[in-house]
Protein: Homoserine kinase
Amino acid sequence: MPTNFSAGPVRVRVPATSANLGPGFDALGLALGLYDDLASEVTPGGVRVTVTGQGAGELPDDDRHLVVRAMRAAFDVLGAQPTGLVVECVNRIPQARGLGSSSAAIVAGVLLARALVTDGEHRLDAAAVLRLAAEIEGHPDNVAPCLLGGFTLAWSEPTGARAVSLAVADGVRPTVFVPAERGLTATARAALPATVPHGDAALTAGRAALLVHALTADPSLLVPATVDRLHQDYRAPGMPGTSALVNALRAAGVAAVVSGAGPTVLALSELPPSFRLGTDWEIWQLPIDVSGARVARGRLGHAERDPVAAGRKS
Structure:
């Protein structure tokens, strides 16, 4: 079946995400109001990628770019590959900090490719987009909130990834503490043991269940609900500053966790006025994104091209 590509560019806005949220390892995620804006258009030949903001001068400007690789994977599913592509990326999500930059790139690529095919939504529905994005990423905990917005529960079945999005209760106030150093998910996963004690697994399962209730109905329970015994302690030696900050915040009564694979720290409750922090961290108060990824026609406007992290409070 021949594929017809849309005339003109399409654009997408994708939110940052924080996965795990403590005990919800590889399952729970939260969409945050910090965004990458991207646009793409089919061309007669060649691939050209421009990057502004986070990752500028570092990320590839050709087929090796993760957005393009995700687009190519989606085009394969959709039935054809365009001869050329132009992709413009305005990145505000920090790279390799545990805020879902790779998932945002993958979701953006899949959605851009789908929007560039005239009947793309018919061939690749929302459930298929999630399955493909999770397959590319390797797990669904970040791609789910990026796509759906809000607080998400994701899981995998033999047919692929699935997820649901839940509304977050008033009183949840995300703050991220972003360090200068970077972390790699592969390195963080390599620190995890092959097995954990049964008691630790049981405790963490119970706290993950409690966390769903705390985030959606009773934020007063966020501190006990964010206790984790599956991954954070094992990763702590590789991120001593992150671990120390999580412990200090929790000692002050704040529901703090490692964001994704780190090294960013996520706090889900208000910081006490007396809490003091050194100068090694950028502190951003971020709203919860409730819409997820959004696609539109046309090029990026002036506001979308601004590389400043709009919406965050320092």
In short: The longest helix spans residues 198-216.
